[in-house]
Amino acid sequence: MIQTKKVIVVLPAYNASETLQKTYEEIPFDIVDEVVLVDDNSTDETLRVAKELGIIHVLKHDENKGYGANQKSCYRKALSLEGDIIIMLHPDYQYTPKLIHSMAYLIANDVYPVVMGSRILGKGALRGGMPMYKYIANRFLTLFQNIVIGQKLSEYHTGFRAFSAEVLNSLNLEHNSDDFIFDNQMLCQIFHKGFEIAEITCPTTYSEESSSINFQRSMTYGLGVLKVSVQYFLHKKKLMSFQIFK
Question: Does the keyword section mention Lipoprotein (predicted)?
Answer without folding.
Answer: yes
